[in-house]
Design brief:
The protein contains 16 helices and 28 strands. The chain is α/β, with parallel strands linked by helices. The protein has 2 domains: 177 residues, Glutaconate Coenzyme A-transferase, CATH 3.40.1080; 239 residues, Acetyl-CoA hydrolase/transferase C-terminal domain (Glutaconate Coenzyme A-transferase).
Amino acid sequence: MDYLAEYKSKLCTADEAVKIVKSGDWVDYGTNLSFPELLDEALAKRKEELRDVKIRGNLILNPIKVVESDPLREHFIYNSWHCSAYERKLCDQGLCNFIPMIFRNLVPYYRHFLTVNVAMCAAAPMDRHGYFNLSVASGVAKGILDTADVVILEVNERLPKVCGGYGQTIHISEVDKIVEGEHGPLPQVPMHPATEEDRAVANELMTMIPNGATLQFGIGGMPNVLGSMLAESDLKDLGMHTELCSDAYVALTEAGKLTNAKKSYLPGLGVTGMAFGTEKVYEFVDENPGVAFMPLEIVNAPETIGKIDHMISINNCIAVDLYGQVNAESAGMRQISGTGGQLDYLTGAAMSRGGKAFLCMTSTYRQKDGTIRSRIVPTFNGDIVTDPRSQAYYMVTEYGMVNLVGRSTWERAELLISIAHPDFRDELIREAEKHGIWIQSNKR
């Protein structure tokens, strides 16, 4: 096959490519660095010709031109599966709607229930075999593209090429249109500076991680500081199995701690579905045969995670109520992020031989007016429940760690109050008494 000739026959400008979009269509922009910025800009220019074009994306870091060009949402309606900081601001402005999901189910949702008229996705340049690498969005990109009526690829010359089991490439025969153009540096997600509270939480976790453990880190300052502490520890032969490869894994690799040698599932390979962070992350995954990108419906499947001995899952949350319900995605009804894969790993780590799932938070937070609030609350009032109380395991704050597994309502209240900020414990006890989940033998 003459793949170059086929490439040239499908090559067009961004303005030409987006002419295929019609009013009422469902368009997909993919996730994080797969965002097609040239096609997005071209589609925004067609604003006056189109109405009711519905767009899905998630974790997009760049400004989205179709959204910013249409503040009344007469032409484009943007929806996100999981909010980046930028998409959170769009939600606050009424310019983005959230779509609830669990990450392992994302592609099956498309496959079985959703319509995609046009999928637009950034990819690395085609190789001599006719394949485009879907880069750091490989965990979901191919599955979404497979469901689309029309596939438009935007070649981004800056994207790293990743290795994997399968799902990290798409062949030119599966592509309808190709767009080229210059791109700026890849957007970076800087590491949040760790607080003293983050370090205290990390110190609690350090005691629970054995040699040979396989790690899943969520996003935030605490996982990054934990990665740094593990890099300086005496632990060895740690592994990676995670939906998101971040800077923490780079630090562990540079320190010689992340070898994947003792993994009971896919030994020798660090497994992930996506990656973003600083430039170090993109350099780390670029053509690295030791990091395998796979579809998230496999990476995040509890039955996959459960195959891994000593699977340690570490995620942040926003709040927990005294019954053990966990909110990791909203402030009241305000969408902050999304469910993502947290529930996947809570479930899977519990199935692992020697596995443990940790949900971490600082005990308090400061409101804009300076008021200090407890993250441990009597009951939720409008907050989204990300993890049901039946799947809450280890909860960690800077004041300690408790395990809620098998605990009654009064035991949960006692344990959670014990790791609350001392200034709020008496108030929480009074509320627990009102709810009938505090008994006289409980510690005060």
